[in-house]
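Posted in: Protein Modeling Q&A

I'm a second-year student putting together a small comparison for a lab meeting, and my supervisor asked me to include a predicted structure for Maleylpyruvate isomerase family mycothiol-dependent enzyme. I've never done this before, so apologies if this is the wrong subforum. The sequence is pasted below exactly as I got it from our records. If anyone can share the structure token output, I'd also love a short note on what stands out.
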Amino acid sequence: MPARSTVLDRESSWQVVEQQRRAIAGLLAELSPKEWDHPSLCAGRRVRHVAAHLAMTPSPPPVGVMIATGLRVGGDYNRLVDPLARRYAEVPVDQLVSGIRDQAGARRMPVLTNYRNVLMDTVVHGQDIAIPLGRTLDLPPAAAAMAIAHAVTLGRPVFDRRRLRGISLRATDIDWSYGAGPEVHGPVRALLLAVTGRTARLRDLAGAGLAPLTERLISA
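Accepted answer (user: helix_wrangler)
Welcome! Here is the predicted structure, written out as tokens:
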């Protein structure tokens, strides 16, 4: 079954991105030095690395730098983004906060991306920061639904379709569903995190498909 969701248009999507960036900047501004170095939900990255990635999105490195880095890593997306974010994460944390806040409404994007990718990236990484710190970052269900509907259309490294083979998903707080087979149901935010490889909110999900989905995520 194809994905069904509430669709946000371009303008509404950018408004969500701006709201999320401002909320993330506000959260980051309150963090202690220890929290900045706390592991995020994004595998292998600490909070400061995720914040640096978000700060870089509306102000990416020059195209030449990205091409040169991409060639060095064989075109691997994660290996392209990770060293750039880690390098930028070395700046003072106040600069990371202001970089996100001051460019909250910016609509510039790195090459070869689009506003749907930016929305998905922003909302997921906001949760990557907030959840392991025990903090709450509000995520409108409509925004999470658009992000997950987009995620399931992508390939690696964002989404591995094998995770959902023979499993269906259904949000309980908005009209969204995907796939066929034993069902996993729950809040769309928890489904979004699971689809993008995070296990932190599996406890909010239920259904006959949850056990195989959990096993696949843990063994990935």
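A couple of things worth pointing out for your meeting: Strands lie at 168-171, 177-179, 183-186. The chain has two domains: 10-133, 141-219.
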